[in-house]
Amino acid sequence: MTQTKRPDSTAHTAARAPAVAFSGVTRSYGAVRAVDGLDLEIAAGETVALLGRNGAGKSTTLALLLGLLPPGTGSVRLFAGTPETAVRTGRVGAMLQDGKAVPRVTVRELITFVAGTYPRPLDVTETLELAGLGEFGGRRVDRLSGGQAQRVRFAVALAGNPELLVLDEPTAALDVEARRVFWRAMRAYARRGNTVVFSTHYLEEADEHADRIVVMDAGRVVADGTGDAIKRRAGGSLVSFDLAGASTGPLAGLPGVSAVEVRGDRALLRTADSDATVVALAGLGLVRGLQVAPAGLEDAFLALTSGNASPTPAPAATRSAKELA
Ligand SMILES: Nc1ncnc2c1ncn2[C@@H]1O[C@H](COP(=O)(O)OP(=O)(O)OP(=O)(O)O)[C@@H](O)[C@H]1O
Q: Where in the numbering of this chain does the ABC transporter domain appear (predicted)?
């Protein structure tokens, strides 16, 4: 399908405008600064993951993006206009964390109703297919499993045929198979040239499904780039060895080393130059049980958030997706 062309007198300007532009945005809840000086631009057509621990400011950022919260300072623009205008005209669809099922209506009735509230909706059958609900159109929405109900919320977000899709922790309640179905649907929608912004705690989901990862911590962006770029930025390798009673004093000063951690009798060093670090360790006679492993995305994430620069011990290759809540 081709994206419905939006009749818009500012179409020429809007086509070149970023889908999302935060400029110097802050937002506090009482004494808590949830979003702290956020500058963020997302080009039309990008798929961006907002990655961060609990309380990093992701949901607040998405609420600001949707115009549900006004910024304390700074400005938020969607397609060069206000979030309110973009939402009202159906250019934005959102799936937030606290969606509730409407009792007694069928899935198709609900999506038909929602589509009817938008100026240029997606075809209802197409919406149901895209959201993986092809067989469930006749089912009541209050008689679905958690994963199926999540797909209904996704269909509600798609119904208006939005150019920008905003998803707050979209796979939080889903099992592995439901996640796979969900991401396939999301990618299909993004491939049509739409912009997708989703928040997640899952590093591997961000790495696998986003073109770009924006890592947030304490309301700020602490890294912004592809998964590979973030891994590189956080430092390349982890070197570990048996201390065998040796002093840890000189370790932090070895070439390439940015962090040192001692676990039991093993020392773990994060290093940007593992060759130079290993040569220096050999010079000190510290080669017992020596291991070198690439730092994974999880290591990068830990190094970038909450000032935690400690390396983690297991080789990245042995780790699976893990929630960092
Ligand atoms: N309504 C509120 N009142 C007071 N403080 C709030 C409120 N909502 C969020 N906060 C605080 O603002 C900060 C950012 O919260 P936010 O929900 O944006 O983070 P998050 O990254 O989405 O977290 P999570 O992954 O747990 O959803 C946290 O310290 C949180 O406790």
A: 20-243
Please give the C-alpha separations between residue 164 and each of 6, 14, 44, 90, 131, in angstroms, as whole numbers: 13, 13, 8, 9, 16
116 contact partners, CB below 8 Å, separation of at least 6 = none
| 34 alpha carbon – ligand 1 mean position (Å) | 6
Contact 273, 232 (CB under 8 A): no
Domain identity same for 262 and 204: no
60 CB under 6 A from ligand 1?
Answer: yes
Print the SS3 string covering 170-181.
Answer: CCCCCCHHHHHH
Per-residue pLDDT tens, the chain, 325 aa: give them: 444 444 444 444 445 689 999 999 999 999 999 999 999 999 999 999 999 888 999 999 999 999 999 999 999 999 999 999 999 889 999 988 766 666 789 999 999 999 999 989 999 999 999 898 989 999 999 888 888 888 899 999 999 999 999 999 998 878 888 888 889 989 999 999 999 999 998 878 888 999 999 999 999 998 899 887 876 666 578 899 999 999 999 999 999 998 888 989 999 998 888 999 999 999 999 999 999 987 776 667 776 775 543 333 333 332 322 322 2
28, 38, 50, 58: which to mutate for ligand 1, most atoms within 8 A of CB? 58
Residue that finishes a domain, picked among 225, 252, 279: 225
Nearest atom of ligand 1 to the alpha carbon of 97? 27
The verdict on the CB of residue 323 being under 6 Å from ligand 1 is no
CA 140–ligand 1 middle distance (angstroms): 33
- Report the CATH number that the domain containing residue 253 is assigned in CATH: 3.30.70
Say if ligand 1 is within 6 A of residue 64 CB. no
- pTM of the entire predicted model: 0.76
90 ligand 1 Cβ < 6 A: no
Number of domains in the chain: 2
Q: Is 170 in the pocket of ligand 1 (CB under 6 A)?
A: no
Query: Which residue range is the domain that position 158 belongs to?
Result: 12-225
* HSE, side-chain direction, 13 A CA sphere, residue 243: 17
Identify whether 291 is part of a domain. yes
75 plus 137 within the same structural domain? yes
